[in-house]
Amino acid sequence: MSSSNLQISGLGKRYGDFVALAPTHxxxxxxxxxxxxxxxxxxxxxxxxxxxxxxRPDEGRVLIDGADVTYGAPYxxxxxxxxQNYALFPHMTIEENIAFPLKMRKVPAAEARRRAMDxxxxxxxxxxxxxxxxxxSGGQQQRIALARCMVxxxxxxxxxxxxxxLDKKLRDQMQLEIKRIHRELGTTIVYVTHDQEEAMTMxxxxxxxxxxxxxxxxxPADLYFRPRTLFVADFLGESNLLRGEVASVDGDMLSVRLxxxxxxxxxxxxxxxxxxxxxxxxxLRPQNLRVREAxxxxxxxxxKLLDVMVTGSxxxxxxxxxxxxxxxxxxxxxxxxxxxxxxxxxxLSVGWQAADAVAIPE
Length: 362
Ligand SMILES: Nc1ncnc2c1ncn2[C@@H]1O[C@H](COP(=O)(O)OP(=O)(O)O)[C@@H](O)[C@H]1O
Ligand SMILES: [Mg+2]
Description:
Layout: E1 4-15, E2 18-29, E3 33-37, H1 44-52, E4 59-64, E5 67-68, E6 79-83, H2 94-104, H3 109-122, H4 138-150, E7 156-160, H5 168-185, E8 188-193, H6 196-202, E9 205-210, E10 213-218, H7 220-225, H8 230-235, E11 240-250, E12 253-258, E13 263-269, E14 279-284, E15 290-292, E16 301-311, E17 314-320, E18 329-334, E19 347-351, E20 357-361
Parallel strand pairs: 3-8, 3-9, 6-7, 7-8, 13-20
Antiparallel strand pairs: 1-2, 1-4, 4-5, 9-10, 11-12, 11-14, 12-13, 14-20, 15-19, 16-17, 16-19, 17-18
Helix pairs in contact: 2-3, 2-4, 3-4
The chain binds adenosine-5'-diphosphate (ADP) and magnesium ion.
The site of magnesium ion (MG) has 2 residues, from helix 1.
């Protein structure tokens, strides 16, 4: 017996000629928080619907605890679902809304009531039991939808952009709430979002999707620090992407020549096999670049300061290196009380270390 709770093997879905999900393999461990991340239209909802049994695949299998449920009805799966539009019953009280799935499962009324109250405690809203949905805020309604899903203790909870309708502050709070509930209940969660920060904050692993296929699957750190493709490097966090050629290889350590900038600098491989002479793109995260004095030694990218932006906790510098059709270099560091006095138009040099640069083969 494996420890995976949910196994997806060769699962695929087409609409006519259009491939919404190419044959996909994915194992989700019991108690794992896995996030499907990707741009709009990348197949996230399609995959979730196939897991839930709301759509039929053209090929492949869905196994829950080893049992094949590919063609079973949604209610035959031990799965709960939370969507962006929480869809509470408007004429039922909050308590009745939450107890509804239990009533459907023929749980005796007294026990259903007790469990509904427990679920309300879990989402920290015990005082709203007697209210109607319209008497709650959007954030509170989303918590009730979560409580209604948890009340029958499904082994797996699927969430499709559940916080998409909430404003940023509330979304941040709800992210923490969902994480806390996940810790307390130990439920397996498959979570969908197109927001990379949300995925990074919440997930044990991220499954990054692109064009109906998995682009990369791994921990948030795997994807952030060792992106396998440019798509991944670009999708997660801000990065400077510079084209170059591998000058030499020493295990994981590379020396990369940046043609357009006329310098050679250190980098790490992203895990893919690599040879001298190969074309690569160097990924440099803005916060890993340091302003240096000429004469500091090491490779330096030099450019004219185009702009300085204070974006709250981070200050960002934009440098024009003069390289043909290259985007400005972005440098970021924590905003300090005593601001640096850089003048727009002045020349600045930035440097980096091998550990801060990842080479992605073309
Ligand atoms: N019922 C459908 N009929 C035709 N095309 C669909 C249908 N459902 C989804 N698609 C298409 O499949 C692709 C993936 O959709 P979806 O899984 O909803 O993406 P995501 O949730 O990542 O935004 C999209 O291009 C979408 O237009
Ligand atoms: Mg979707």
